[in-house]
Design a protein that fits this description.
Order of helices and strands: EHEHHEHEHHEEEHHEHEEHHEH
CATH class of the largest domain: Alpha Beta
Helix content: 25-40%
Number of domains: 2
CATH topology of the largest domain: D-Maltodextrin-Binding Protein, domain 2
Number of helices: 12
Distance between the termini: 50 Å
CATH architecture of the largest domain: 3-Layer(aba) Sandwich
Structural class: alpha/beta
Largest sheet: 4 strands, parallel
Length: 280
């Protein structure tokens, strides 16, 4: 029997738990071995650890989540799914759902979605993100929109108001950099790839009016793309050390350790940024 592989995105492993639990209520336990999950640390997944006993009681088996940072998780999930397939659930995000789905490394979520739940309850925009080739591949429990966070103390000392426009950001970042004190104006993603520097470069591209296609042809070689790249490189002069070859983990890590004045990153950062246990 070919193993079933599901995709989890930003906490969608909860949906796996709900699916198995719902089935288990109506029949004998459905799992004969621990469910193996490959993911990266997110509240939606780490909190799932608290329900291990309940999951085992309802499903007949426990689960094991192997956590990796963003880049390592992407690399290992592709390598594993395309070869041995050791995992039952892969953390798949918007950057690679098309690859996993078209390669048939995962199965459509709705084939296993519990009847007691209505998928239409999810935000329509997020449903589109989870859909590829007319099929749903993961439960979009939360999204990764952009969020700006900043060190109030650093901005107040410098006499700078939080930037309200892109021009403000470009002007303020160099003023906030003070390498002698280990403080940098911003942290950006330098690692190459669709889930790395492209993820953070893209808002600049769109802000300057960039379009992905001109008709049916890619339109990256445009004035907007050039200006976005120039702006990104200019800001990178004041990006914290280690971010030049880094991604999410390095940029957020620099901010959470107190080295960065302003950070624009995905919204999963929000809780960590205001939690004194994780943020300095």
């Amino acid at each position: 029997m070919k193993p079933v592989r599901l995709a989890a995105s930003l906490g969608a492993a909860f949906m796996l738990s709900a699916t198995v639990s719902t089935i288990a209520l109506a029949q004998a336990p459905v799992c004969s071995a621990p469910v193996k999950v490959l993911a990266q640390p997110r509240d939606g997944l780490t909190l799932l650890e608290d329900s291990k006993d309940e999951f085992q009681k309802l499903s007949g088996a426990s689960f094991q989540i192997d956590y990796l940072n963003e880049n390592d998780r992407r690399a290992k999930s592709r390598a594993d799914a395309s070869t041995v397939g050791n995992y039952n659930v892969y953390y798949v995000d918007e950057a690679n759902v098309a690859l996993f789905a078209s390669s048939k490394w995962i199965v459509p979520l709705t084939d296993y979605y519990p009847a007691d739940y209505d998928y239409a309850d999810f935000d329509p925009g997020r449903q589109k993100v989870a859909t590829y080739d007319g099929k749903v591949w993961f439960a979009p429990l939360t999204g990764g929109g952009d969020l700006m966070v900043y060190r109030k103390d650093i901005l107040e000392t410098a006499g700078i108001q939080p930037p309200k426009t892109l021009d403000d950001l470009i002007a303020d970042v160099p003023k906030l950099t003070n390498p002698d004190k280990g403080i940098y104006g911003i942290a950006l993603r330098g690692a190459r790839g669709s889930g790395a520097n492209v993820w953070r470069w893209m808002p600049f591209f769109k802000a300057y009016g960039g379009q992905w296609f001109d008709g049916d042809k890619p339109a990256f070689n445009s004035d907007a793309a050039v200006k976005a790249t120039e702006t990104y490189l200019k800001l990178f002069k004041d990006s914290a050390p280690g971010t030049q070859t880094g991604s999410w983990d390095e940029s957020t890590g620099a901010f959470l350790s107190g080295q960065v004045a302003i950070l624009v990153e995905s919204t999963p950062l929000s809780g960590m940024a205001v939690d004194p246990k994780t943020s300095q």
